[in-house]
Amino acid sequence: MSPSNPMNRRKDRIDSLAASTGGATGTALLEAGSVDEKPGVSLIASAWQRLRRNPVFLIGLGITLVFVVLAVVSPFIAPHDPAAGLLIGQVRPQSNPVPGPQPGFPLGTDDVGRDLLSRLLVGSQQTLIVGVVATVFGLTGGLVLGILAGAFGGWVDALVMRVVDVLLSIPSLLLAFSIAAIAARPSQLTVIIAVAAVQVPIFARLLRGSMLSQRSSDHVLAARALGVNQRAIVFRHMVPNSLGPVIVQSTLVLATSIIDAAALSFLGLGNPDDRQPEWGQMLGRAQQYIYDYPHLAIYPAVCIIVVALGFTLMGESLREALDPKSRR
């Protein structure tokens, strides 16, 4: 076949074109087929990336932070002693039972001349203590029952869950009221115990369900196949991987703990010493003046609602961020 053959010339032309464009084409193909390798992101880091762009979470977090900061520094920023009746001389049972706002007392006083603003600020600390301590006690009791039921199974699981079912069948506020009423003398401790007892079955059932799903997971089965003892499997593999939903639930429970504690104090089952103000206690004391001086009840009620809303917004956003089914 001679070099002047049209087929050879066509072939040479194609080869020359391929040679001239080969570098650019190869580079384009490499770029098109390449994949940018990025480091993996943990579940917590991924959740935080979504949370910091979630306005609902940011609002809840802001409310919660303001509440916690005020509760911590309230004894130092309160303008007056919340237990001192500084304006008791202005109290007139018939004409002026509740002195109104005046210089130095922007919200006025209660019926015994104590500064209302100072009592609201210091009362936030008592409310935070009751809510947090009750949640911690309820979480601890729920962890113990949930671990027993989820780790052992069998008759232990059946016995624990029947007790939990009985507790869950009773309305939470009624159960807390019954427990608090048993105490010989109402106090802040009885409120904490009553509210914590209501939360125990919630945490126990949630942790038990999470641990049951972990029992059939691959890493637990692999640990059993390698001969790892049951205690190590429970506390090193099952419990740590089951705490996520429980921690999220504890954030939501904080809101209900504050509301339940305020309800018990409102009913007279809280600390009887009103020299240590608490929002629910202030609500209960204000009910006799609710028609003529509603601000005595409005201020603590708004504080309870806003704080409970903050914890609820933060907890719901956290639950959605950690739940794969809720991710957008």
CATH architecture annotation: Orthogonal Bundle
The residue fraction in helices comes out at over 70%
What is the gyration radius calculated from CA atoms?
32 Å
CATH 4th-level superfamily: MetI-like
Sum up the overall morphology in one term. Answer: flat
Number of strands: 0
Count of discrete structural domains: 1
Distance between the termini: 67 Å
In CATH terms, what is the fold-level topology? Answer: MetI-like fold
Low-confidence parts, pLDDT < 50 over ≥5 residues? none
Rounded mean pLDDT is 81
Oligomer: single chain
Bin the strand percentage: under 5%
Quickly give the structural class. Answer: mainly alpha
Structure annotation, total helices:
11
Q: Mind describing the biggest β-sheet?
A: none
Indicate the CATH class: Mainly Alpha
Structure description:
The chain is mostly helical and 328 residues long. The chain has a single domain (43-82, 117-326), classed as MetI-like fold. Helices cover 71% and strands 0% of the residues. It contains 11 helices and no strands. Helix 3 (55-77) packs across helix 4 (116-152). The longest helix has 37 residues, at 116-152. The N and C termini lie far apart (67 Å). The mean pLDDT is 81.
